[in-house]
C-alpha cells in the first residue's frame, strides 16, 4: 500500500502542477466558505504584521543587550563567483574556535543572487588590533562528480575602534594573474 | 586535496567603505535580500524593518529597499502591506517590467487566496502600460479569474484574442478557452478548441497531462450529448497510464453503448481562417479555375487543415457486440484503484453488461463482488473521515517543514504516507486547500517563534549582562551590577573621614595640611525613576531594552495566534471531511444500485416459481396443508 501511495503521491504533485494552471474554479469561492476563508486570511495577515514588528523589536532589544554598539563586530560574506556553490565556510577571530557554516544547495544559490550577502556572525570585541581568519570550500555548479573541491583561505588584521564594525568577506575571482578564487575583506561604515 | 587552494596570508583590512543606511550598498539590506532569496521572508522582513528603527528619522532608503520590502511582504502572504508599497514601486519604477511584474504578482496572490473581485480590479489596473512580454501572463491570469467568477463570455472574448500561436504556453490558454466556450453556450467552437489541445504533439509530461485532460473533457461532453460515435475516437487518444486513464476507459465503454449520434462538424477558428488565407489567398480552392491553375490542389482546405468534422466511430451492428466491446475496456479498469469513482462505477457496469448479455449467473457473481468491494471502500472512507477529524494528516504535512518561513511561496513537496492523503489527492491540489494550509502553517510557525522569544527574554532577564570586555566597562553593565547588588536603602547619615593619603586637587606631590573638613549631611537617595533615554523601540526608560514590555507583547499575541490557527485548522478539516463525505455518498449510491440489481437478479434466477414458494423452498419447509399459494407468508 505504501508503494502505491508513493507512486500516487508523485502523480498528485504532477496533477497539482497541471490543475493549478487550469481554469478550475476557486472552490471555496462559494458563499459562506469563501467569506470564512477571506476573513481568516485577513486575521492572519494582521497577526503576521504584529508578529513581524514584534520580531523587529525583539531583535533590536537583544542586539542592544548582547551586542552593544561600541563593541559590536558583524561579519558578512558574499560570493561574487558565478556558479560557485559553497559547501562550508568557517570564520575564526583572534584564534578562537571557528564558527562553521554548512550550506545546502538552496542557501548556496541564495548567496549567488545579485546584491545578496549573508550575515555570518556577530561578536563583541574590545578596541584594538584583531585577526580574522576565514576559509571556504565549494564546487562549481557544472563540476563533475569526483572533481576536487574549490577552496581558499585568508587572514586579515583589522583595527576595532568605538564604532560598530561591519566586515564583509568577499569570495572573488582574485587578481587577473590568479585564476583561483580568493578571499578578500572589506570594512563598511554607515554615514548619516 | 584542493584544486585551487590559496596559501594563508595576512593582510590589513583596507580603509572602510561607506554607505548610507538603506542604500544598495548597505550590507544589512543585502543580508535581508539573502534571507529573501533563501525564502526566509519573515526574517527578511524583520531585518528590513529593523533598519528603519535603527536609523530613526533620517532613514531614507534606495528604491531597491522598498521593492524588496514589498516583495517580501507579498511572499509572506501579507497582501495589504504589500499593496501600498507596490503602488509606490509601480509609480516610481524606472523599468516598466518591474512595475508590471509586481502588479501581476499581487493579482496572482489575490486570485489564489480567493479575493476574486480584487484580483479582477488589480488586473484591469495592471493592463495599462503593461509591457508586451507580460501580456500572455496577464491574459492567462485574467481568464482564470473570469472563469472562477463564471464570466464565461468575457473569458471567451479575452482568450479568443490571445489564441494566436501554437507554442506550448498556449495549450493552457486554449484549454481554458474551450471550457469557456462550452460554458458560454458556443459548443461548436468549444469542441474544436478542445480537440486542438487534445491533438497537441508534445513530450512534456505536464502538457501530455493537459492533452489528456482536454480529451477526457471533450469525450465526456460528447457522451453527455449522446454522441458516442464522436466520443470514442477522442477518448482513445488518452494515455492508458495517467491520471485521466480510468475516466477515459470508463467513457470508452459507455461510448460503445451510447447512440452513435450524427457526425459533428468542427468550427473554423480565427487561426484557421488566417492559415486558409495564407494557402489560398484568392479563394480559388474548389473552383474549376482553381483546379486548372493549381492541379493537385483540389482538396478542400478545410479538410486539409483538419477542421472539417470530427471522426465518428461507427457503432456495432448489434447491442451484444457493443456490450462485448465495452467489457474489454471495463475489464482493464476493474482491478485498478478501488477508491477511484471510475473504477467503482465499472464494478457495476460490468455486471450490468453481463446481465444484458444474458449471463445472469456471472452478473450475480460480479454484483456480489461489487457489493463486497463497495462495502470495503465505504469502510475505508469512514476510517479516513475519522483520521481527518483526528487532525493527523494536516499535522503531518505541517510538521515536515515546520520552521520554513516561505509564507505564500511555500510548496507541498511530498505527501505523508497516510490513507487519508490518498483519498484527498484532488482536494489537496486545489487552491482553497493549499492556501488554507499555507496560512495554517504560518500561524503555527509564528506561535513557535513567539514561544522561543519568551524563553529568550526570560534568559536575558535572569542573567544580567556580563560585559565580555573587562578593560572597557560598559555603563549599562555597571548599572546592571548595581541593581543586582543593591542593598536596601539606609536612611542614616553617611560618615565621611579625611584620607591622609589624598592630596588636595592640584597638589598631588604631597598630602595637604590636616584640616577638619566640613561634613555635609548625606543620605542615600531613592533609586532614580529614569536614566537618559537610549532610544529604539525595544528600549525602556532605563538604560537598556524593556524586556518586560516585550514579554507582555509576546504573551498577548499568543492567544490570538492559537485561536486563528485553530480556526484555520477547522477549515482544513471541513474541506477534507466534505470531500470524503461526498465520496461516501457516491459509494452508498452505488451500493444501493448494486443491491437493487442483485435483488432483481435473484428474482430472475427462479422465473418459474412464485415468490412465496421460493421463500418456502429456501427455508426447507413445506407449505402447510390447506393453505393456498400466497397465503403462507400471511399465516406465518
Written description of the protein model:
The complex is a heterodimer of chains A (192) and B (636). Chain A has 192 residues and is of the alpha+beta class. Chain A has 3 helices and 8 strands. A 4-stranded mixed beta sheet of chain A has the order 4-1-7-8, with no helix packed on it. In chain A, a hairpin with a 5-residue loop joins β2 and β3. The N terminus of chain A is likely disordered. Chain B is an all-alpha fold and 636 residues long. Chain B has 27 helices and 2 strands. In chain B, α11 runs antiparallel to α12. The longest helix of chain B is centred in the last third of the chain and has 59 residues. The N terminus and C terminus of chain B are likely disordered. Classes of the chains: A alpha+beta (192), B mainly alpha (636). At the A-B interface, α1, α2, β1, α3 and β4 of A face β1, β2, α1, α2 and α4 of B.
Describe the secondary-structure layout.
The complex is a heterodimer of chains A (about 190) and B (about 625).
Chain A: H1 2-21, H2 31-66, E1 72-79, E2 84-93, E3 99-102, H3 105-112, E4 118-124, E5 128-140, E6 150-160, E7 165-172, E8 182-190
Parallel strand pairs in A: 1-7
Antiparallel strand pairs in A: 1-4, 2-3, 2-5, 5-6, 7-8
Chain B: E1 10-12, E2 17-19, H1 27-37, H2 41-55, H3 63-75, H4 79-92, H5 96-113, H6 116-127, H7 135-148, H8 152-162, H9 170-183, H10 187-198, H11 205-224, H12 228-235, H13 245-257, H14 270-279, H15 288-293, H16 301-304, H17 319-333, H18 341-356, H19 360-390, H20 392-399, H21 419-423, H22 425-428, H23 431-462, H24 475-484, H25 547-605, H26 611-619, H27 632-635
Helix pairs in contact in B: 1-2, 2-3, 3-4, 4-5, 5-6, 5-7, 6-7, 7-8, 7-9, 8-9, 9-10, 10-11, 11-12, 11-13, 12-13, 13-17, 17-18, 18-19, 18-25, 19-25, 23-25
Amino acid at each position: 500500500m505504501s508503494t502505491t501511495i508513493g507512486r500516487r503521491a508523485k502523480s498528485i504533485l504532477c496533477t497539482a502542477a497541471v490543475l493549478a494552471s487550469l481554469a478550475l474554479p476557486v472552490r471555496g469561492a462559494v458563499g459562506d466558505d469563501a467569506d470564512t476563508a477571506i476573513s481568516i486570511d485577513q486575521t492572519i495577515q494582521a497577526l503576521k504584521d504584529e508578529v513581524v514588528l514584534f520580531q523587529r523589536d525583539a531583535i533590536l532589544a537583544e542586539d542592544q543587550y548582547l551586542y552593544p554598539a561600541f563593541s559590536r563586530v558583524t561579519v558578512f560574506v558574499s560570493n561574487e563567483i558565478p556558479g560557485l556553490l559553497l559547501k562550508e565556510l568557517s570564520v575564526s577571530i583572534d584564534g578562537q574556535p571557528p564558527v562553521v557554516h554548512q550550506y545546502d544547495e538552496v542557501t548556496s544559490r541564495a548567496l549567488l543572487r545579485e546584491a545578496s550577502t549573508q550575515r555570518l556572525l556577530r561578536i563583541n570585541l574590545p578596541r584594538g588590533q584583531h585577526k580574522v581568519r576565514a576559509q571556504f570550500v565549494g564546487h562549481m555548479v557544472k563540476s563533475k562528480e569526483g572533481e576536487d573541491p574549490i577552496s581558499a583561505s585568508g587572514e586579515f588584521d583589522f583595527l576595532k575602534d568605538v564604532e560598530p564594525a561591519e566586515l564583509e568577506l568577499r569570495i572573488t575571482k582574485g587578481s587577473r594573474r590568479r585564476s583561483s578564487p580568493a578571499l578578500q575583506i572589506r570594512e563598511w561604515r554607515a554615514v548619516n | 586535496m584542493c584544486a585551487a587552494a590559496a596559501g594563508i596570508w595576512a593582510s590589513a583590512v583596507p580603509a572602510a567603505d561607506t554607505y548610507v543606511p538603506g542604500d544598495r550598498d548597505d550590507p544589512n539590506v543585502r543580508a535581508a535580500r539573502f534571507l529573501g532569496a533563501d525564502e526566509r521572508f519573515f526574517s527578511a522582513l524583520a531585518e528590513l524593518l529593523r533598519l528603519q528603527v535603527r536609523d530613526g528619522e533620517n532613514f531614507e532608503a534606495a528604491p531597491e529597499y522598498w521593492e524588496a520590502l514589498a516583495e517580501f511582504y507579498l511572499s509572506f502572504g501579507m497582501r495589504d502591506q504589500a499593496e501600498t508599497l507596490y503602488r509606490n514601486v509601480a509609480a516610481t519604477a524606472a523599468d516598466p517590467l518591474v512595475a508590471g511584474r509586481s502588479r501581476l504578482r499581487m493579482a496572482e496572490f489575490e486570485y489564489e487566496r480567493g479575493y476574486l473581485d480584487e484580483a479582477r480590479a488589480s488586473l484591469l489596473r495592471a493592463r495599462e502600460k503593461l509591457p508586451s512580454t507580460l501580456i500572455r501572463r496577464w491574459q492567462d491570469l485574467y481568464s482564470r479569474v473570469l472563469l472562477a467568477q463564471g464570466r464565461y463570455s468575457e473569458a471567451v472574448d479575452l482568450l479568443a484574442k490571445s489564441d494566436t500561436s501554437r507554442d506550448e504556453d498556449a495549450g493552457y490558454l486554449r484549454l481554458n478557452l474551450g471550457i469557456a466556450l462550452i460554458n458560454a453556450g458556443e459548443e461548436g467552437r468549444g469542441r474544436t478548441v478542445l480537440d486542438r489541445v487534445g491533438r497537441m504533439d508534445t513530450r512534456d509530461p505536464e502538457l501530455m497531462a493537459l492533452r489528456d485532460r482536454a480529451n477526457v473533457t471533450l469525450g465526456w461532453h460528447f457522451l453527455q450529448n449522446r454522441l458516442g460515435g464522436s466520443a470514442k475516437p477522442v477518448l482513445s487518444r488518452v494515455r492508458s497510464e495517467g491520471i485521466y486513464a480510468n475516466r477515459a476507459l470508463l467513457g470508452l465503454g459507455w461510448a460503445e453503448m451510447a447512440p452513435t449520434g450524427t457526425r459533428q462538424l468542427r468550427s473554423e477558428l480565427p487561426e484557421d481562417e488566417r492559415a486558409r488565407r495564407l494557402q489560398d489567398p484568392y479563394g480559388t480552392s474548389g473552383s474549376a479555375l482553381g483546379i486548372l491553375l493549381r492541379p493537385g490542389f483540389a482538396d478542400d482546405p478545410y479538410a486539409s487543415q483538419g477542421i472539417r468534422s470530427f471522426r465518428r466511430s461507427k457503432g456495432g451492428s448489434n447491442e451484444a457486440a457493443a456490450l462485448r466491446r465495452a467489457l474489454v475496456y471495463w475489464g482493464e479498469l476493474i482491478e485498478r484503484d478501488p477508491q477511484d469513482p471510475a473504477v467503482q462505477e465499472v464494478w457495476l457496469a460490468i455486471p450490468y453488461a453481463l446481465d444484458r448479455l444474458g449471463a445472469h449467473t456471472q452478473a450475480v457473481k460480479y454484483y456480489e463482488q461489487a457489493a463486497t468491494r463497495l462495502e470495503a471502500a465505504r469502510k475505508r472512507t469512514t476510517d479516513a473521515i475519522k483520521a481527518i477529524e483526528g487532525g493527523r494528516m494536516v499535522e503531518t504535512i505541517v510538521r515536515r517543514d515546520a520552521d520554513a518561513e516561505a509564507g505564500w511561496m511555500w510548496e507541498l513537496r511530498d505527501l505523508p504516507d497516510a490513507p487519508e492523503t490518498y483519498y484527498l489527492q484532488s482536494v489537496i491540489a486545489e487552491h482553497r486547500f493549499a492556501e488554507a494550509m499555507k496560512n495554517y502553517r504560518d500561524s503555527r510557525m509564528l506561535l513557535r517563534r513567539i514561544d522561543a522569544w519568551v524563553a529568550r527574554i526570560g534568559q536575558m532577564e535572569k542573567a544580567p549582562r556580563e560585559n565580555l570586555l573587562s578593560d572597557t566597562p560598559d555603563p549599562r553593565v555597571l548599572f546592571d551590577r548595581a541593581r543586582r547588588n543593591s542593598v536596601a536603602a539606609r536612611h542614616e547619615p553617611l560618615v565621611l573621614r579625611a584620607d591622609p593619603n589624598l592630596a588636595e586637587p592640584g597638589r598631588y606631590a604631597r598630602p595637604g595640611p590636616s584640616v577638619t573638613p566640613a561634613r555635609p549631611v548625606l543620605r542615600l537617595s531613592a533609586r532614580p525613576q529614569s536614566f537618559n533615554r537610549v532610544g529604539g523601540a525595544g528600549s525602556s526608560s532605563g538604560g537598556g531594552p524593556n524586556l518586560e514590555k516585550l514579554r507582555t507583547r509576546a504573551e498577548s499575541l499568543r492567544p490570538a495566534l492559537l485561536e486563528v490557527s485553530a480556526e484555520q485548522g477547522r477549515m482544513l478539516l471541513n474541506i477534507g471531511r466534505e470531500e470524503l463525505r461526498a465520496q461516501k455518498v457516491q459509494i452508498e449510491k452505488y451500493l444501493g444500485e448494486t443491491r437493487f440489481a442483485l435483488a432483481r437478479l435473484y428474482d430472475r434466477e427462479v422465473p418459474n416459481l412464485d415468490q412465496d414458494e421460493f421463500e418456502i423452498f429456501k427455508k426447507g419447509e413445506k407449505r402447510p396443508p390447506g393453505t393456498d399459494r400466497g397465503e403462507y407468508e400471511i399465516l406465518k
